[in-house]
Design goal:
The protein is of the alpha/beta class and about 425 residues long. It has helices at about 40-55, 90-95, 145-150, 160-165, 170-180, 190-210, 210-225, 245-250, 260-270, 275-280, 300-310, 325-330, 355-370, 400-410, 415-420; strands spanning about 1-10, 25, 30-35, 80-85, 100-105, 110-125, 125-135, 155, 285-290, 320-325, 335-340, 345, 375-380, 385-390. A hairpin with a 2-residue loop joins strand 5 and strand 6 (about 110-125). It is globular, with a radius of gyration of 27 Å. The two termini are about 40 Å apart. The relative contact order is 0.13.
């Protein structure tokens, strides 16, 4: 299943008129890249999805005063609404939400969909909220298990990847691992047996090897504290044998002594995306990533966006990212771009049927991306759909290929390598 449509009513900057949404935006499977100027609403779109679906990291998500539309006179509305449509259910996913689904039969196939209605309102300086399924007024409230299966993966901007991947109680890395199918059965897991063996070795070290002098001293002192007829014993052992506790003791890092922020962020994203590949529970496979380019070198940005586009194009998972990077925008396929402009979300995955329509979108892309960094041009063929294409005005090179070939040559760039990277040339 995927989030296919989002409608905002009086949420943030998106004012609703005559009960029409202030913003209506469509998404598709695979990668969806939100592109727009500052204050175009990219963060608002992701925050709205978070309010409806919540996140797997179990962060505290509640509506605030800033979420209610404020007019030019400083007057705030007292209610906002978010409507979210989920479609493209597999049978494995549909079985978890069957009591909440709408369905219709097309030929021999049953098509499922689910409408989510989120509302927040103010009463006497307090903010209340509710989520209903099926209908905004008479819809039912979703139970706990189904609610958990709708939670999205979320990577916030300027993320502290090192802290997120560190050990600790309810650490993020332990949550990710517990969600993987190989840890679905916690009793009798192989990791528990490994820890039991380690615990026996620890006990042996302090009872028979070099550590026995320490344990003997502690026992002697403890005996002195107690009465002669009330002896006590002591021993060293590792943490308990609960699988959750074992996973909470783990940290995920790279072998470098002092890895950079970029490398740690890539590691963090690789871990978070783990569940989008290996979840068999029939849950929503959605990742929300703000400022995808954070802490990443331009070449790493190109490799990352290429991976996301290729890996998740037909996987059944959905990734919604926001970016300010013209480098990334120039690399993203047109079909994966959602352009936010003047309170409207343009899903460019649809074909542009006329040259005039293409020129209008082209003008907006020029304005948003900036012609000083990236050149866009219209490739119009009357017999085919119109496409908007991107290239770097400052360079005629395929930067991704340049990076690949230069790494293979130990970062030595020759004229021959440059010639191979000219647009339109092959290896």
């Amino acid at each position: 299943m995927i989030v296919s449509e989002l409608k905002l009513y009086n949420f943030r900057k998106f004012k609703s008129n005559d009960n029409e949404p202030g913003l209506s935006i469509t998404f598709h499977k695979g990668l969806n890249a939100l592109i727009g100027e500052n204050d175009s609403g990219k963060t608002a779109v992701i925050d709205a999805i978070k309010l409806v679906l919540l996140t797997q990291s179990n962060e505290y998500i509640r509506p605030t005063d800033e979420d209610f539309f404020i007019d030019s006179d400083g007057q705030s509305v007292t209610e906002f609404r978010i409507e979210c449509l989920l479609e493209d259910f597999t049978n494995n996913e549909a079985k978890n939400f069957i009591e909440y689904l709408d369905f219709c039969k097309v030929g021999d196939k049953i098509i499922y969909s689910m409408h989510l209605y989120y509302k927040a309102w103010k009463e006497k300086n307090r903010i209340f909220s509710e989520l209903r399924i099926g209908d905004a007024v008479d819809g039912v409230v979703m139970d706990g298990r189904a609610r958990e299966l709708l939670k999205a993966v979320y990577l916030k901007p300027l993320r502290d990847a090192e802290r997120e991947m560190s050990s600790g109680r309810n650490s993020r890395i332990s949550q990710i691992l517990l969600g993987h199918p190989i840890f679905s059965k916690q009793d009798g897991h192989k990791l528990i047996d490994i820890l039991k063996d380690a615990n026996q070795n620890v006990e042996k070290y302090f009872s028979e090897d070099d550590g026995k002098v320490i344990l003997r001293s502690i026992k002697s002192t403890l005996d002195a504290f107690n009465e002669s007829d009330n002896t006590s014993d002591a021993r060293f052992e590792t943490s308990d044998y609960q699988l959750k506790a074992i996973l909470e003791s783990l940290s995920l890092t790279v072998p470098e002594t002092h890895p950079g922020l970029g490398e740690l962020n890539l590691l963090f994203m690789a871990a978070e995306l783990l569940l989008l590949k290996h979840d068999d529970n029939g849950c929503l496979k959605l990742a929300l990533i703000e400022e995808l380019e954070a802490h990443l070198h331009p070449q790493a940005q190109l490799r990352l966006i290429s991976y996301l586009q290729n890996e998740y194009n037909e996987s059944g998972a959905q990734i919604i990212v926001s970016t300010h990077s013209t480098m990334l925008a120039s690399k993203i396929n047109l079909k994966n771009i959602v352009l936010l402009k003047n309170g409207v979300g343009y899903d460019l995955s649809g074909f542009v049927k006329t040259k005039a329509a293409g020129e209008r979108i082209l003008a907006m892309v020029h304005e948003v991306l900036g012609t000083d960094k990236c050149e866009t041009y219209l490739d119009y063929r009357p017999s085919e759909p119109t496409w908007i294409q991107f290239k770097f005005q400052s360079s005629e090179f395929d930067l991704e290929k340049l990076d690949k070939l230069s790494r293979e040559a130990d970062r030595v760039v020759t004229k021959e390598i440059l010639k191979q990277c000219l647009h339109g040339k092959s290896n």
